[in-house]
Amino acid sequence: MAFPQSMRSSTTPQELEFIASEELVEIRPTVKMDQIRFISGIYGPFTGGRLVKVPLWMAVNLKLKKKCNVVPPVWLNLEYLQDKLSEETSRPVFSDLPFRYAEISKVLLDIASDDLDQPDKLRSVLKDLREARQAKTREGLRAIDQNALSLPNLSAMEINEARPFFVGAMGILSQLTATTDATTI
Amino acid sequence: MENDYYSIDAILAENQKVPCAFKVDIPDLGYLDGGSEKDIKASSKSQLPFWLTPVLLLSDFADCILPPPFSQRVRNALNAEATSVKLSSLVGSGGLWYGFGRMIVHVIEEPYAKDLTNVLVKTFKDRLVDIMDQAQHFGALGNHAGGGGDGQKGEDFREGLDGTERELFALAQASAKRTKQWYESSDKTRR
User: Fold this and answer.
1) Among A62, A166, B10, B181, which is disulfide-ready with A67 (CB 3.0 to 4.6 Å)?
2) Nearest residue of A to residue B114 by CA position?
3) Is the pTM of this model over 0.90?
4) How many separate helices (H) and strands (E) can be counted in chain B?
């Protein structure tokens, strides 16, 4: 394999963003279009001002061409995320965030920040969330053994970041502990 | 770090010296010890590479004692605080402390084998969190050399990592760096 060692066991963040772009978001189109048929489904018709559910990739595309406005998803607002942040810092388990929240929020903040309420504060809350969860991941690492490690409610990007390290560490542990079984034979 | 005959990691891990005492005279092989003796006399001590020892033990030509990287002194230090022991100074900077320990576990007898395995596993787990911590910190710094607030302790720890730990560190650092770069990239300039 010509891949560098670190890329062999996980996907790149860009690939995860691509996969997350299949998620549906709501938009308000600013131009009129008929129904369009894609491989993933049929979307539309688009009439001015009415809410339409489209995949994220299509929303990004239309937004960059200035043909729509994006309606932020239910969880992408300041109060909800601040609640989650206080939940995150007060309890040792991970709080319940949408699986692909990192990718979706990054894309929307990037492309459609004018459609979001207080994007700067959103950015900083998201960053705090990310760091709090990262610290918890490190703590959870102490409980590792060679069989399984359970960290419920981790998001896709966080899993992806930890995967090469975790898999490598568990591999080494299983080799170290295999020796006791071998010598008792 | 497998038991495979062809595994490079296993070969490198075996490349450590073990103190042995010969039980019989061995004519004409005095040069192995680096000295000027013609023969090896019984009960003479020498440092031999680990891959020689299974044969010598099986044929009962020599006795070996536990090599210094796993002595009681090292174990006490690891028990006290695993993260402050410099594993790389025990086996050389390219060395594989965990790999070597595994090999030894295969040849020694039962109660000691289990002990040593427990020492290896506990040390690994204790140091693991620090490895991840440092790797993410350095991944986040990007291309800056040296850690700003990190200080001497962090550097000492990183220097003391053994071969297997260094690989893990590199993995964690690379993935942290990639994620950080993605977070900071922007698609607006694409169109």
Assistant:
1) A62
2) A180
3) no
4) 8, 3
Q: Are A45 and A78 in contact (CB under 8 A)?
A: no
* B163 inside domain: no
Position A120, amino acid = D
Q: What is the tens place of the pLDDT at every residue in B42-56? A: 667 777 888 888 888
What is the Cα–Cα distance from B173 to A76, expressed in whole angstroms?
30
Find the mean pLDDT for residues B147-160.
68
Query: What is the residue range of B36's domain?
Result: 17-65
Closest CA to B132 of B180, B163, B171, B79: B171
Query: Could you tell me which residue, B29 or B22, shows the higher pLDDT?
Result: B22
Number of domains in chain B: 1
Tokens of B132: 């991840």
Q: Is residue B137 part of a domain?
A: no
**CB distance B174–A6 less than 8 Å?**
yes
pLDDT digit string, tens, across residues A74-95? 888 889 999 999 988 888 888 8
- B contacts of A175 (beta carbons < 8 Å): 1-2, 102
Instruction: Check CB contact of A98 with chain B, cutoff 8 Å.
Output: no
How long a stretch of residues is chain A?
A: 185
Return the amino acid letter for B124: F
Residue B29, domain member (yes or no): yes
Number of Cα atoms under 13 Å in the Cβ half of residue B140: 10
What is the C-alpha to C-alpha distance for residues B3 and A184, in angstroms, rounded to an integer? 17
End-to-end alpha carbon distance in chain B? 48
Q: Which domains does chain A have, with CATH numbers?
A: 5-140+152-184 (3.40.5.50)
- Closest alpha carbon to B22 in B35, B9, B12: B35
